Structures are given as structure tokens and as C-alpha cells.
């Protein structure tokens, strides 16, 4: 890619990812998934199955007390959420640094351009032109924007790469993304 391909304009920015960007994206992805309808349904199923298994094991051991099952049922949701939370938030930085080291495509700068029709991402590895309407959803927090092409595949835009004007502009364009 030539240097002229990396020039920026009002709706163009060069993104140079860092390992921390990957960790932040992973956290946002985790939280948006946990709060989604499917994520809540999966958590509820795990909770019901775990409680039933615990009650069944107590019954097999001859314990007919109800209180241990009630206590387990109250504690289980916390445990079900705590394990992935700990992996994502405590070990996420380690995994992000390892992924960044392994995936050489993340080391090269990429040019992001957008307009009312969609977004274009260009790098030394190729171009992706995606109309806003073809995105599944978009999520953001204080530091990153994720543009989802499917439930698990997203494009990462670190907000640190955008000026305040560019951030407001891209947010206005995100209105064309389906609510997902």
C-alpha cells in the first residue's frame, strides 16, 4: 500500500491497532452477548440444568433437604457469569497480546473511510466495502466501536483514532445499521 493510500480526510482515518484494543473489543463483545436475548436464554438454561444436576446429586446421596438446592440456585447465576467475566477481564489482556503477536494482519495500519452508504476498510491485505445495511449490528462503549458482520465476526474501530468530529459523524452514519 502506498503512502498516499494512508492519507486522511474528514471521513477517513488510519487505524493502527494495539493489543489493548483487542482486549477492549473482547470485553465489549462479552457484555453485549451477555445482555442479548440469546445470551440470557443460554445463561438461564445453564442455571436450570446446573440446579437440577445439583438437586439430583443430593437426592442420590440421600439428602432430601431443600435449602442446599435453594442456596445453590441463588449462587449459581453469579458463578455462571463470574467464570467468563474473569476470563475476559483478567486474562483477556494476555489473550489479546498473544493474538496480536500471532496475527500479523493486525500489525499493519488500515484506512477506514465511511459515508452515508457504508464503510470501507483498506489495508495491505485487501479491501472490505460494507454497506451499513449489511452489518448485523453495531455496538460501542467509551473506547471502541464494533461493527458486526455476524453474531461473532466484528470490525474494530478504536475511538482513540477518531477526532471528536469524526466520532460524531460516524455515529450519525451508524443509525443506518440494523438494531440487531
From TrEMBL:
Residues 114-173 form the YcxB-like C-terminal domain. Keywords: Membrane, Transmembrane, Transmembrane helix. The chain crosses the membrane at residues 40-58, 70-96. This is YcxB-like protein. It comes from Pseudomonas straminea.
Amino acid at each position: 500500500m502506498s503512502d498516499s493510500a494512508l492519507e486522511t480526510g474528514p471521513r477517513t482515518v488510519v487505524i493502527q491497532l494495539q493489543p489493548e484494543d483487542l482486549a477492549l473489543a473482547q470485553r465489549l463483545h462479552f457484555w453485549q452477548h451477555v445482555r442479548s436475548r440469546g445470551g440470557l436464554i443460554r445463561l438461564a438454561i445453564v442455571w436450570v440444568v446446573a440446579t437440577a444436576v445439583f438437586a439430583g446429586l443430593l437426592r442420590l446421596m440421600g439428602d432430601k433437604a431443600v435449602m442446599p438446592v435453594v442456596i445453590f440456585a441463588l449462587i449459581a447465576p453469579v458463578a455462571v457469569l463470574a467464570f467468563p467475566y474473569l476470563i475476559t477481564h483478567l486474562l483477556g489482556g494476555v489473550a489479546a497480546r498473544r493474538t496480536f503477536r500471532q496475527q500479523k494482519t493486525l500489525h499493519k495500519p488500515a484506512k477506514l473511510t465511511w459515508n452515508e452508504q457504508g464503510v470501507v476498510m483498506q489495508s495491505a491485505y485487501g479491501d472490505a466495502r460494507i454497506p451499513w445495511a449489511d452489518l448485523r449490528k453495531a455496538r460501542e462503549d467509551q473506547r471502541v466501536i464494533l461493527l458486526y458482520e455476524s453474531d461473532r465476526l466484528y470490525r474494530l474501530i478504536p475511538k482513540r483514532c477518531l477526532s471528536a468530529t469524526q466520532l460524531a459523524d460516524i455515529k450519525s452514519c451508524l443509525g443506518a445499521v440494523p438494531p440487531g
